[in-house]
Write a structure and sequence with these properties.
26 helices, 7-stranded parallel beta sheet, alpha/beta
Length: 642
């Protein structure tokens, strides 16, 4: 487990403080100041205060903070960009003086470090094996144990590609030599952290997961890691990727599942019972919940009986895997039950998984969905449909992918955004049979389309931008991987030619290349690392265009930009976003052609206005289609003979 040190050097002893952020860092800050009696904690604040309702902590919302008197607010954020975003929010919404804000990014105190260097690992396979063995005994699953080695590999790959290539080739050769699946998986994780993951590595890891027969908790978490690796690096999919992962997910569920709990309840006499399966309902800002919620409400409004089953099977407990997951999931959907009640129409039931172990939660979920006995299952889990084999075996199942055109889920029908793209994708991956493909563009939320004014735009002057500055925005959770050298060079060449242009990069992390290749652009404020943004509508309100790299995801970011009337600059590359924006509104060509289009938008304000309005109207048109979209989904589900 990671350990984080309270910023003692920035807070005077005896001060009255507020700790903002009750994640791992915030909780450890609290324990440290209490144990040392260093200062008085007058309040604990978190954006999702409701999730701590049943915990040992009394956590309040930001709105309640005005009731407290304090000397400092200590922002406990692991990511520096997140801390900066919180600081901006506190200054804007609460008018907190800067001198009262302690913005010290939570720095991890490493309790373990590798005794071996990269040079030792490269001596031979025996030495490399010993180094990996040491991790299994000493590191407690913490991949930071190898930070120095990972950084050295990164450096060699960047500064001397020939030397870096030799190192990678040596390490990949070890994968064929080693017999231990755990050691091979560990080395693949090192490849991932060093940014040199490829198809061969992922195929090796998939095979190693199958080999582990004595630890199914680890198998579950390693399958989760595979999903995240592929999400950030779509080039790692090998031909059998989705089929192999699908079979592993079934094996994982079969191991935990007690078939005796699979007893179907009475059938609904009207045949109008719908189950909605969703992933990550712990935070209402997640794309899964935002995408699912309007459809759930529409179903209810059409007279169907709807029960939502959030999949909280993944709830990480320390020690469940020999290597800590890439993103440990610790939240639970039930923690925000009150918000679900506010956002979902009355009459919609939610069945929150119960149990302290993965096995208990699997069986609780299976028992409850069989007892409910739905006429149709709508599965919104996408590549996180780890339990899909359970409901696929019992009920007509319609999968609605969150991204992409291939799938490891189990389903009867697969509703893609574009049929032809799905067919093309599956000539390689073969995971969606032709007779299971249906195609519809997802409808937006009509309530959003007609809800009146959006958030008040941010004031440009507050962030150092001028009235005539041309603000380009690119946002997403995976900019670290999606900002390729080609895309960065294209945008930065535009910046070089236009002194009034600024580029806002919105997300927790960005790629290393841009910071190394264009450091002066950051110093001059030409490129801005904005960090995580809590109110994209307010941010987009002060921007001029949304420039999108070639990527599969970011549909939520782009849809919000469309609603704000921003011109969208994106290629006609087949992606989830293309059917939403319309191929006729995409740039026919690559990044050079995109740059030419941006030149036109930059020099012609009227063109910007017209294209922006076109995007806004397209968003509204999509939103109007919600009832028809849901009706077609049900027609597909009820046609399944099962």
């Amino acid at each position: 487990m990671a350990n984080y040190l309270f910023p003692f050097d920035k807070v005077e002893k005896g001060s009255d403080i507020v700790i903002y952020g009750m994640g791992l860092a915030g909780r450890q800050y609290l324990e440290q100041v209490k144990a040392l009696e260093y200062c008085n904690v007058v309040a604990l604040v978190d954006r999702d205060a409701s999730k701590f309702a049943r915990s040992q902590y009394h956590v309040v919302t930001l709105e309640e903070l005005s009731r407290y008197s304090f000397d400092y607010i200590v922002v406990a954020a692991i990511f520096g960009d997140t801390a900066k975003s919180i600081m901006r929010d506190l200054r804007r919404r609460m008018d907190i003086p800067p001198e009262k804000l302690i913005c010290a990014q939570a720095e991890e105190v490493r309790s373990n470090f590798c005794l071996y260097g990269l040079e030792y690992m490269l001596r031979g396979y025996e030495e490399l094996s010993a180094c990996l063995e040491n991790f299994l005994y000493e590191a407690c699953g913490n991949i930071h144990y190898y930070d120095e080695i990972i950084n050295e590999i990164k450096s060699d790959l960047y500064l001397d590609s020939e030397k870096g290539g030799r190192i990678v080739d040596f390490l990949k050769g070890y994968l064929s030599w080693e017999t231990s699946p755990r050691k091979k998986i560990l080395l693949v994780r090192i490849f991932y952290e060093a940014g040199c993951l490829d198809k061969e590595c992922v195929e090796t890891m998939m095979g190693c997961i199958r080999e582990i027969q004595d630890d199914y908790e680890s198998r579950i978490w390693l399958t989760w890691d595979i999903s995240l690796m592929e999400l950030e690096n779509t080039h790692v999919r090998y031909d059998n990727y989705f089929l192999d992962k699908r079979q592993i997910m079934r094996e994982n569920m079969d191991h935990f599942l007690d078939r005796a709990v699979l007893v179907k309840g009475e059938k609904d006499p009207e045949g109008k019972r719908i189950a909605v399966i969703g992933f990550h309902f712990d935070n209402v800002a997640t794309s899964h919940f935002e995408f699912t919620r309007p459809m759930i409400n529409e179903l209810c409004g059409m007279g169907y009986k709807v029960t939502v089953f959030p999949i909280d099977l993944l709830r990480y407990s320390y020690g469940e895997c020999f290597i800590e997951p890439i993103v440990p999931v610790v939240k639970v959907s039930s923690a925000v039950k009150q918000k679900h009640g506010q956002l979902l129409d009355p009459g919609i039931d939610i069945v929150y998984p119960q149990g302290s172990t993965i096995g208990e939660r699997v069986n609780h979920f299976a028992r409850e969905i069989y007892r409910y006995n739905p006429d149709v299952v709508l599965d919104f889990c996408g590549e996180y449909a780890f339990s899909s084999s359970i409901y696929y075996d019992g009920f007509p199942t319609v999968a609605l992918p969150m991204r992409g055109y291939a799938s490891s889920a189990w389903f009867d029908k697969y509703v893609a955004r574009d049929r032809q793209m799905c067919i093309e994708e599956n000539r390689t991956f073969r995971s969606v049979p032709l007779d299971k493909i249906e195609a519809m563009v997802p409808a937006g939320d009509a309530k959003y389309a007609y809800a009146g004014s959006l958030s008040q735009p941010y004031d440009r002057r507050q962030y150092g931008f001028g009235k005539e500055d041309f603000l380009i925005v690119t946002s997403g959770d995976r900019l670290k991987n999606e900002l390729t050298m080609e895309f960065v060079d294209c945008v930065c060449s535009f910046l070089q030619e236009h002194g009034q242009a600024r580029w806002l990069l919105v997300g927790r992390e960005i790629c290393d290349y841009i910071e190394k290749a264009y450091p002066s652009y950051f110093e001059e404020g030409r490129v801005v690392k904005w960090g995580y943004e809590t109110d994209l509508y307010a941010l987009y309100g002060m921007c001029d265009i949304f420039w999108n790299p070639i990527r599969n995801g970011a549909g939520g970011c782009m849809t919000r930009a469309m609603r704000c009337g921003l011109p969208i600059v994106t290629t006609a590359f087949p992606s989830d976003c293309l059917p939403v924006i319309g191929v006729e509104n995409a740039v026919d060509g690559g990044y050079p052609e995109c740059k030419e289009y941006v030149e036109r938008l930059f020099s012609d304000k009227e063109l910007r206005r017209r294209i922006g309005e076109l995007m806004r109207q397209r968003f509204i048109a999509n939103a109007k289609g919600m009832e028809e979209y849901v009706r077609k989904l049900l027609e597909i589900g009820y046609r399944i003979n099962k």
